[in-house]
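Retry 2 of 3 after timeout on previous attempt. Resubmitting structure tokens to design endpoint.
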């Protein structure tokens, strides 16, 4: 922190200069006002109004005013001959009430330390239990927004650093022992003194995720860079995703906030990408053709039911040629039916339902071996179009944009792949293998489907390389290799910021705001990065203290007339870890307003010039959230 404080001193000079200028301005106004009131007072032979007007002005302009008090003639104040007149006799508008405008943002009660606004258990109970709709996002109305800062639990500590964090987490940070009891036999998580350890087990892989992934690797190639992005539906503590990272595969894991207390919270604490989520009645918040591989290990999603609706959604987000891996019921029921406490008829029927749905989506079953079954999505839809004569359902979707996915209702139609002219062609374009994929021109760009050219794309990659290098000159923690793990980019455009961090041991959640002019999330996935959609007027589907670092490029100008700046900042404060840092890029006027709010939020911040020149209106606000927690529990009672 020593380096950051010396940095404050130097960079604050800009602000001081600005404040000084304002002070002189107010002092001049004040002198004019004082003289005016003095003469009005003399003329009226009345003393009351003069004094009141002056004192009002004095308190509002705080520190400039010590000289102003003396401009009230003392003999008039003491004149006892007249009755005091308290009505105002001037019609000049008062200066804006500065003190009142600064929001008061106290810490919330300790019971909110795990508050997730849009997945709140109390609120969710009002919604339909059918198909788990009540576990979907249900955000509070504007009146229900908390106007306080979510505290870290008492005893909170900086998480273990990656890669140690894959295997350990502090108990004080996620004080829930329930899973260690419930999933004891399955080796999900153990508890020991002050910490949890994660042996890497899961319901279908009690012997560890690495053995399980090795088994998958015998059926499909996980080593040649052709598989980079994955999604784990119903992820548990995300051990599958955690162990895939060593193969350079980036998995987005999701699970609902349910009775398996805090599973996603554990994942995030371990430094593994995850979101709270459920597949119920709306689309998953990802574009079409995003993932190279989808995985469900005993994830309890009824794949064969509701006209195959859930498998149809997996089909939408799988890229052409992508894989779907299923383990757990009903796969290998011959061996497990007794352990699962289900009849063989029941399991057999479930399996045939899934097989039939997969065939109707034109998926090919690659193999079933032991507890694993793997299907592959076709590389284009030429055959699939022809065989719609055989499979009456599902038909191809007509209207809906396949990449729109924010409260978008699920449908029971098949998302058509981009047209191809040859049966061997990859619909939508062939992706490069990882790591070339990161900087290769993504198919969605070279096909011209967005108003962004290949030159724009390469320029953006270069631009962010330079910007991130500049960021590291003043954010010492960002520069420190391994200090940060979970990173959020709130408005990521083409993912250039994340691409520039590729040499660091971090992962980046790339958010494309629903309000962004161009929907670029598909490009981000084509580069082999991961992300989600989000409306920043609402809370994110994640736990408090998820991220070590948050980057907000032009977020506040985008949401300027959409919702309160203060609410977005409170949400950022909620999901930021204590001692984490934030970089906000925006117009200087917006940044000055933001700074007034962050100053009362216990963020240490300063505003820095644009990397190119101080003449740009765009500036950079750099802030660090101070360490503070809820009070000790016994102080409360
Ligand atoms: C792409 O580049 C061209 C030429 O440099 C520029 O005029 C245009 O604004 C850029 N488009 C985007 C979306 O950045
Ligand atoms: C189908 C099946 O095996 N059902 C059994 C599940 O377990 C309960 C006892 O916990 C038995 O009563 C059921 O017969």
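Retry 2 succeeded. Sequence:
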């Amino acid at each position: 922190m020593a380096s950051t404080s010396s940095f404050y001193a130097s960079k604050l000079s800009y602000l001081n200069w600005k404040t000084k200028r304002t002070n002189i301005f107010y002092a001049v106004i004040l002198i004019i006002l004082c003289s005016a009131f003095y003469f009005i007072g003399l003329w009226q032979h009345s003393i009351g109004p003069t004094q009141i007007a002056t004192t009002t002005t004095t308190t509002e302009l705080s520190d400039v005013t010590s000289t102003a008090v003396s401009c009230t003639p003392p003999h008039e104040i003491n004149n006892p001959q007249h009755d005091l007149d308290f009505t105002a006799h001037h019609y000049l508008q008062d200066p804006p009430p500065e003190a009142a405008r600064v929001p008061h943002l106290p810490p919330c009660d300790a019971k909110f330390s795990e508050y997730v606004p849009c997945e709140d258990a109390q609120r969710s109970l009002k919604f339909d239990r059918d198909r788990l709709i009540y576990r979907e996002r249900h955000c509070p109305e504007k009146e229900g927004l908390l106007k306080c800062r979510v505290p870290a639990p008492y005893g909170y500590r900086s998480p273990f650093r990656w890669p140690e964090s894959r295997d350990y987490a502090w108990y004080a940070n996620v004080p829930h022992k329930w899973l260690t009891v419930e999933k004891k036999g399955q080796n999900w998580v153990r508890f020991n003194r002050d910490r949890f350890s994660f042996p890497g087990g899961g319901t279908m892989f009690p012997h560890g995720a690495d053995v399980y992934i090795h088994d998958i690797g015998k059926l499909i190639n996980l080593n040649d860079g052709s598989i980079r992005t994955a999604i784990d539906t119903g992820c548990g503590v995300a051990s599958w995703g955690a162990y895939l990272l060593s193969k350079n595969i980036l998995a987005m894991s999701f699970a609902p906030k349910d009775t398996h207390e805090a599973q996603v919270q554990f994942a995030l604490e371990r430094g593994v990408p995850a979101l709270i989520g459920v597949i119920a009645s709306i689309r998953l918040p990802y574009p079409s053709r995003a993932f190279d591989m989808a995985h469900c290990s005993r994830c309890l999603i009824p794949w064969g039911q509701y006209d195959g609706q859930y498998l149809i959604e997996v089909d939408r987000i799988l890229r052409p040629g992508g894989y779907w891996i299923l383990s757990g019921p009903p796969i290998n029921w011959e061996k497990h039916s007794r352990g699962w406490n289900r009849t063989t008829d029941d399991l057999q029927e479930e399996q045939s339902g899934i097989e039939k749905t997969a065939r109707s989506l034109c998926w090919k079953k690659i193999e079933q071996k032991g507890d694993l079954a793997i299907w592959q999505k076709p590389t284009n839809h030429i055959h699939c179009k022809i065989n719609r004569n055989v499979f009456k359902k599902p038909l191809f979707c007509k209207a809906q944009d396949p990449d729109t996915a924010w409260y978008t209702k699920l449908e029971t139609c098949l998302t058509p792949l981009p047209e191809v002219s040859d049966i061997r062609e990859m619909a939508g374009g062939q992706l490069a293998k990882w790591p070339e994929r990161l900087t290769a021109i993504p198919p969605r760009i070279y096909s011209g489907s967005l108003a962004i050219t290949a030159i724009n794309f390469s320029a953006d990659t270069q631009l962010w390389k330079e910007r991130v290098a500049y960021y590291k000159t003043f954010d010492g923690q960002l520069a420190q290799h391994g200090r940060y793990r979970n990173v959020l980019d709130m408005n990521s455009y083409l993912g250039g910021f994340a691409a520039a961090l590729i040499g660091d041991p971090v992962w980046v959640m790339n958010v494309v705001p629903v309000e962004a002019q161009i929907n670029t999330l598909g490009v981000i996935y084509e580069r082999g990065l991961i992300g989600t959609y989000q409306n920043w007027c609402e809370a994110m589907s994640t736990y408090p203290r998820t991220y070590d670092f948050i980057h907000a490029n032009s977020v506040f100008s985008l949401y300027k007339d959409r919702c309160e700046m203060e609410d977005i900042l409170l949400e950022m404060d909620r999901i930021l870890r204590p001692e984490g840092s934030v970089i906000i890029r925006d117009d200087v006027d917006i940044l000055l307003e933001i700074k007034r709010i962050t100053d009362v939020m216990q963020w240490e911040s300063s505003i820095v010039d644009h990397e190119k020149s101080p003449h740009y209106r765009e500036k950079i606000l750099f802030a660090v959230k101070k360490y503070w927690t809820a009070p000790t529990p016994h102080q409360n009672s």
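Attempt log closed. The CA atoms of residues 560 and 590 lie 9 Å apart.
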